[in-house]
Amino acid sequence: MTKYDVLIVGGGSVGCAIAYALSRYDLKVAVAEKELDVGMGTSGRNSGVVHAGFNNRPGSLMAKLCVEGNEGFEALCKMLDIPYKRTGKLIVGYDEADHQALIKLKEQGEKNGVKGLEIIDGAAIRAIEPDLPASWAMLSRNTAVFNPFLYSIHLAEASAQNGVQYYLNSPVTAVEATEEGYRVQAGDHVLTCKTLINSAGLFADRVSAMAGDPSFTIYPCRGEYYLLDKGTLKMPVYPVPRPGVGGLGVHLTVTVDGNILIGPSADYIDNHEDYSTTEPILDQLRREAMILLPTLNMRTVIGTYAGVRPKLVKKGEANFGDFVIERSPKAKHLINLIGIESPGITASMPIARMVLDILSEDTELVEKPDFVPTYRGIPPFAELSRAEQRALIEQDPDYGDVVCRCETVTRAQVKRALHNPIGATGVIAVKNRTRSTMGRCNGGYCFQRIVELLLSEGKAPQDIDLKRRGDRPLLGYVKGGQA
Amino acid sequence: MERADLIVIGGGPAGLAAAVRAKEKGVERVLLLERNPVLGGILNQCIHDGFGVLRFGSAMSGPEYAARFIQMARDAGVEAICGAMVVELSPDKKVTYITPQGLFEVQAKAVILSTGCRERTRGALAVPGNRPAGVYTAGVVQYLMNMRNIAFGKNVVIMGSGDIGLIMARRMTLEGARVHCVLEKLPFCSGLPRNVRQCLEDFDIPLCLAETVKEIHGDDHITHVITAKVDEKGRFIPGSERTIPCDVLVLSVGLIPENELAKACGIEMDPVTGGALVDGDLMTSVPGVFSCGNGLHVHDLVDLVSEEGERAAEHAAAYLKGAANKPMVPVTVSGGIRYVLPRQLTTGEDGYLSMRVMLPGRDRKLTVTAGDKTLVSKKMKRVMPSEMIRLKVKDVPACEQVEVSLV
Questions:
Q1: Can you state the percent helix, strand and coil of chain B, rounding each to 5?
Q2: Considering only CB atoms, which chain B residues are within 8 Å of A273?
């Protein structure tokens, strides 16, 4: 049994942001995460956009924290070595009705305190994106894109370097209220804490209920995506919402690496973690995307994926549920974060600050003199200059062994990913930290090399995990013995 | 800056043959760069036989065929560097490559691209369903099974009747798995008839034509696929679905020439073949850069790959000697030919045309004409998309265009 001041349940972007924020203080903090790595839920299945905040209801917590989060995002990414690009975003329309809708959207944004919004016409649109056949647009200069995987990962690894303990592959299965707080069964571990911070995303309602507050129900709402190879689009392009017009309102996003995303859709589902893509939705995504950008090259599709939003409103309801960020009125040692869907990641640091405020009500926050706020991740070899690449290889010959051809990822990076500071395992730990297997060959070249590396480090093939413990991508050896 | 007369990028069968021929033609410094720890390329993992029947009169395994050329390369004085990943080819033929010893730049006078191909993926096909463990392209299974003794599963479904899938159907059966079936969405097989006989029929593995995977299921590891029949327009036929339980899904759904270096260099690509657009000398749009092998267009016989590599080397050697540009004539196709390569032929020389037909057929005639003159006329008892046809056109005449026709 291990005792903590604070136990964070759920290692997504919000949980890791809270861990990072807490790691500044003299507290024993742990994170219990059910997957093999952090950021594997909604935080790792989204568009990777830092929203400006014009799409959120004025006066809501979502709007306030989104705008606040957007303002501080660039500096945070610089501090934590997270790829970030302020590309801006275009919300486009085609007729006068759309034009008026864009003007209203700009007004809503400005009400929320969003800066850098401008209405532009077709000529100005095509000066930015020559292939967009739109007549009107709102340019949002403060919208940015970033690497959502490294976001959770670097927050977590930075917090770990400042003393936070990570329990991965440790789903919370039982929570018992004690005199001083809680006793929690997380995977094989029994952990006690004074304060339980519930950032369990899709399962936050269940964790809250386990901890004594059954007030919430999460309604999972899935979004499907296409991932395309790098193209010529410079910034995300979304169609202006048109009430009464059908369709998905398909978005095109350019990732921080230059790939193109089509999506997401929005469908309520029964199984919270049903990350399947479906034929009718993929079909619709494709058709609408081609209307938005006729020059889109669908022959460069790399893959499809899905994410699920933890919604607080049922299908068919008014469709607005604000963030719930509170000390539970039913359980005084429980701080709940429920319904943190988009713009959750953008708002994650302001959310963490709110949590700190709430925590300080019954916990002393004394700053640690040796807190290190900055973090340097694995060198992104592919993005370095030739001189920098040469220098790295001279330092460590493993930088001269390219494992992933499509993304130019080296053996040194893969090794560092496998031996990461929070103990994340699985091929997914390599994928999320290096981009290996994310490229156009889907691991056709690098997967076997990653496996060989694991085998050379003594791992048995049947013990290799892909994304979840025991998903067993390999059965074992064909014949007895080794290769 | 370090210099080389000819740099060959890729040490598989195309690159090896090219490097050897270049030395035979008197090219002084031939540098062969290969990313794997050994030469041989994809041949090293192809332990089945059938390689070299045309070339050596003997059906060898992949590694045996590769060994012949590796020895020739050694004897000829080819400088081969393994573990070398080329990361950049500039339009002025400067090659940048990386090894554990460092990052190197070499200025070449001529370059041959023999970079092979990669496999089409489940992701690229956007097959709906989950993304569980246990879904692989056939080449990955082949490598890990043959080179590292790795087993993947006991109940296999193979999607796509490409040759690699057929070979792996037999391979996995021999290693103790049950291969349920091979599914092919077209009404005819993509692979060679001899592979259908030797890998499927001999092992009682059904080939299900006009049927393919509709959905992939399984939470963490694949549990089953849902397949459906496909109509002549490629659409799923409602009501024809069936469920096949499996613990491995192997994909053999096509090969794509690997041309990231060429594209980044600004070399013009051929949208039909997926490789570079080349002239009658197998030269790309960048002077002095040639292409051959699977990186240029996907082959089915390694013997033809070697031969193409040798021709590329001959043209590169002539280029290095400053041979004058001979005029070229365009090549057009009609009547059921999917593509012809190259799309130009050099006049006054023997030309070689590679082509594939669109549909299987029997008792056809293939003709190559220049205006009224028939240059080649060949009776083809059987034609199929999976079998590349290579024709020699003797002494290409000066004319307006050369037409290839299948009747």
A1: 25, 40, 35
A2: 219
Alpha-carbon distance B141 to B379, whole Å? 39
Q: Are strands B85-89 and B94-99 parallel, antiparallel or unpaired?
A: antiparallel
Determine contact, residues A215/A339, Cβ cutoff 8 Å: no
Task: Report the 10 Å Cβ neighbour count for A125.
Answer: 20
Dihedral angle sign, alpha carbons of residues A155, A157, A161, A164: positive
Beta strand B135-137 with B248-251: parallel, antiparallel or unpaired?
A: parallel
Residue with tokens 């009500």: A361
**CA separation (Å) from B280 to B6, B20, B346, B347?**
19, 21, 5, 9
Nearest-angstrom CA–CA distance, A425 and A421: 11
Is it the case that residue A483 has pLDDT exceeding 70? no
Q: What is the CA radius of gyration of chain A?
A: 23
Residues of B in contact with A277 (CB under 8 A): 126, 128-129
Q: Which residues of A are catalytic?
A: 51
Q: Which of A397, A442, A473 sits opposite B121 (nearest CB)?
A: A442
Q: Which of B88, B89, B140 to mutate to test the interface with A (most CBs of A within 10 A)?
A: B140
Query: Half-sphere exposure (CA, 13 Å, Cβ side) for B68?
Result: 17
Of B35, B133, B149, the CB nearest to A478: B149
Query: Would an 8 Å CB–CB cutoff place B230 in contact with chain A?
Result: no
How far apart CA A396 and CA A249 sit, in angstroms, is 48
Per-residue pLDDT of chain B in tens (407 residues, 90 and over written 9): 999 999 999 999 999 999 999 999 999 999 999 999 999 999 999 999 999 999 999 999 999 999 999 999 999 999 999 999 999 999 999 999 999 999 999 999 999 999 999 999 999 999 999 999 999 999 999 999 999 999 999 999 999 999 999 999 999 999 999 999 999 999 999 999 999 999 999 999 999 999 999 999 999 999 999 999 999 999 999 999 999 999 999 999 999 999 999 999 999 999 999 999 999 999 999 999 999 999 999 999 999 999 999 999 999 999 999 988 889 999 999 889 999 999 999 999 999 999 999 999 999 999 999 999 999 999 999 999 999 999 999 999 999 999 999 98
Give the contacts of A106 (CB within 8 A, at least 6 positions apart).
A54, A117, A118, A119, A138
Closest residue by Cα to residue B217 from A186, A276, A248: A276
Unique residue bearing structure tokens 């929070």: A422
According to DSSP, residue B235 is labeled P
Alpha-carbon distance of A163 to A165, in angstroms, equals 6
Nearest CA among B63, B84, B104 for reference residue B9: B84
Are the beta carbons of A405 and B85 separated by less than 8 Å?
A: yes
Residue A170's φ and ψ, nearest 5 degrees, are: -130, 75
Phi, psi of B273 (to 5 degrees): -90, -25
Helices B302-320, B62-76: inter-axial angle, 10-degree rounding: 20
- Phi, psi angle pair for B50, to nearest 5°: 115, -5
Beta carbons of B133 and A471 less than 8 angstroms apart: yes
B87 interfacial to chain A (CB closer than 8 Å): yes
* Complex ipTM value: 0.94
Reading the block at residue A316, the tokens are 């068919």
Rounded Cα–Cα distance for residues B107 and B95 (Å): 6
Residue A429 has pLDDT above 90, yes or no: yes
Question: What are the backbone dihedrals phi and psi of residue B354, each rounded to the nearest 5 degrees, phi first?
Answer: -105, 140
3-state secondary structure of A405: coil
A470 and B175 within 8 Å at the Cβ level: the answer is no
